Amino acid sequence: VFMKEESQFSEVVMEIVCGTYEKFILGFRASIETAKLQPVFGYAAHDGCVKSVAAAGRILVSGSTDEIIKIYDLKRKKEVGNLVQHDGPVTTLAFFRNTHLLSGSEDSTICVWKVKEWTCLRTLKGHKGAINCVAVHPTGKLALTSSRDKSVRLWDLTNGNCAATTPRTSEPDVVAWSQNGKMYAVSENTEVTIQPLEDPEKVVRLHHEKKVHSLTFASDNVLVTGGEDRVIKVWDARSGSCSGTSGAHQNRIRGVVLLPGDSDSDSDGARLVGTASSDGLVRVWDLRALAKPVVDHQTARRLTCIAATNVPSGPDETLSSSPTPKALARKSESNDESSHEHAAEAAAPVAKKPSKRTKRSA
Fold it and tell me: What pTM did the predictor assign?
């Protein structure tokens, strides 16, 4: 069960959240100064394996083979609602800031959600297979998706259209944008390709001994990868040279995440990443010293995914207390979209479209 809300939070608390094969989500408060990962909550969240977690500020979402997206308030340590829109397991989740969420599913669609009301603004269709991963461009105007149909698609979120489709020789797994949005990375089995957005012919290729399960950009030009070979590698994204390697775990690495708010102008960006493995360990690594982890915690669970966020202790408009922030988006009984038009928002460039009606429950 969720542990009780604590009052001694500082202004910002870093939390790491993992999903498990055993249907749980596990939360940890990360203290790098004291080298501790303090368990904060453990929750039997779903009726199936947790496939993806994502966090933005105090908002946490999880997706599962039970086809449901669950929403949590990390500050209050409470589940606040469900999103039921997909007709297959929810495989990937990605926030744009704390205003929009993109979800991908084995039903081959991507849903664009407005966070404040938890309405489905648009459903992106075009892939012919399950969605493996979705990544939102730092501007919020573009998104990348990878699919079992052996393609990567670039979506224009200002109009909901597919801007480009790139066939791949094998099934692409993970996609990620660099922090400045000028390049992106795609993993396919043991290989990772890095491509500039403006010059897709200029490709840098990276190799692992076994399949790559996760990757993240630690800065504009530094990529961190992990996978079946149980090691994390740090790469120069411009040259493809490997600047660091660590035998990080005793089993496959299922997730690599950049820890938020950890930047150093003298070290080319952030230096701390978290990893989650099937060996049950959650670990934090300093990319400048990979000989041993900064801190770790054994969960005794088979971890499947990882996310990290800074949870503010002050008031947050996204999950206001009035009305009660409990949302339930139900599937429409008809395949026809509602004629309701969503008003344009100046706060974020993600596009709107007539959508299936959303119900809210108190």
Answer: 0.84
